[in-house]
Write the structure tokens for this entry.
Amino acid sequence: MRRVLLFVALLANFQLTAQNLKIGIVAQPNLSYYTVQTDLSGLSQDFRQQHKPIITYQAGILIFKDLGKSVNFVTGLMFAQRGLKSQYNTNNVTSFNFSNSGFDLKLIDRFIEIPLLFIANFNKGKAITLFGSFGLKPSFYINSISKVVGSGSNYSSYVYVAHRKFNIFASLGLGADVKITERFNLLLWPSIDHSIISEVYAAPLKLYPYSAGVNLCLVYSLGN
């Protein structure tokens, strides 16, 4: 958490001293799941049978800095959720016989992330600018939440001690920058984030969380 606070302080100083800055508010509904790697035959299929993707979201503030005529650097602070829906059997938690009675449980991990992205604009100066993005997202684990699907009860929150506390996500995207006024732009920004490091809470498996969705970002130009 100290690293996050230090970054916020540096970001504030960067905003005050740099030129040609834009600030954006971003939200992204996304599909979240895991890439599975294992040497055990059938275990990957069992995992996919028991665990399903879910819809989660990301939201935060982004800072855009012009590096040249067609290249921008993007950083900021994001709150992100990633997870899955897991089917548990009430007779045997480890059973994959889903004909018995059971329940679905949403398991969601929550993170603070610092995007470090580059945007390449393909037709700068047009009313609608097409662009591609790539970069990394250092990610800091906050906690996890769970809820039985359809129960109507509130989420329970906990810190999973075996969870990896730090990860890095590679991010790729394509989008359109729509000019609204001289100061405001709207970014429609489909992207996918995939972890570089596997999670540690499933010993026989290597699980790499990922999410894919469409960023909606309202950008305001601070000017010179």
About this structure: Helices lie at 2-17, 43-50.
